[in-house]
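re: the backbone from monday

yeah here it is again, tokenized this time
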């Protein structure tokens, strides 16, 4: 691949990921009552000093990962509330 920079992605720490996801899944977070899940996620993300973390006026958590350039931003969104049995 001439002229293309190859980037090696870091190895995924599956034990860490599974521990976090287990903690998150075991945290009650019904719609409208997501404070504990937001707090868990915020505390976990604080371990990464390069992230800019803030909450919106409505309590949503926003983590920004500054890049080398800002001309083509990307976003990832996710729900942290438990929807399961509440959807009819």
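seq for it, each position gets an aa:
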């Amino acid at each position: 691949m001439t002229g293309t920079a190859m980037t090696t992605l870091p190895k995924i720490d599956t034990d860490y990921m599974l521990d976090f996801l287990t903690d998150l899944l075991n945290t009650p977070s019904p719609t409208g009552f997501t404070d504990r899940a937001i707090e868990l996620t915020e505390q976990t993300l604080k371990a990464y000093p390069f992230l800019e973390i803030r909450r919106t006026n409505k309590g949503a958590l926003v983590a920004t990962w500054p890049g080398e350039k800002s001309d083509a931003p990307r976003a990832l969104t996710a729900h942290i509330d438990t929807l399961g049995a509440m959807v009819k």
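The mean pLDDT is 87. The beta strands are 52-55, 61-64.
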